[in-house]
Amino acid sequence: MSSHPNPPRRRWMAVLARASADEIAGRLDAIPTPPPHVRLRGPETGLVMVRGRAGGDGAPFNLGEMTVTRCSVRLPDGRVGHAYVAGRDGRQAELAALVDALLLDDATRDALQAAVIAPLAEAQAARCEAIARKAAATRVNFFTMQQMR
Question: If 47 and its partner were Cys, which of 9, 14, 24, 65 is the partner (CB 3.0–4.6 Å)?
Fold first, then answer.
């Protein structure tokens, strides 16, 4: 994996890409009214080719196509935010791009991280943990079953 030129942005964009439009909008309600924005591109929906690797590091192969929606917005001060999200939700893409643009301001980044990104990341982690617990409850230990015979 190549190193990203802006790791914090990569982290917040990953959280925004996994959050629903309603979740992002709900978190934006917790902050002062964001400035108006202008759509530069989109929301536009299209397809991207998803590539995989055999064994994680083997030869690459085309796995299939995936629907994504992208959007770019500009704030009055010139900051530009971009977003790509899985699926066809244009509202999610636009809200994610808006939050991306807002997070580019060094003066308000920490407050936005605490009010928007951190709660979304915690909710996503809780959902993953619940799924993992549910899957673990159905786990079968074949070694134990073999000794029971």
Answer: 65
Helix (H, G, I), strand (E, B) or coil at 74: strand
> What is the three-class DSSP state of 136?
helix
pLDDT in tens, the chain (149 residues): 456 677 888 898 999 999 999 999 998 888 878 888 999 998 999 999 999 888 878 889 999 999 999 999 999 999 999 999 999 999 999 999 999 999 998 888 888 898 899 999 999 888 888 888 888 788 777 766 555 55
Whole-number Cα distances in Å, 146 to 115, 140, 143: 51, 11, 5
Q: What sign has the CA pseudo-torsion 36, 46, 12, 19?
A: positive
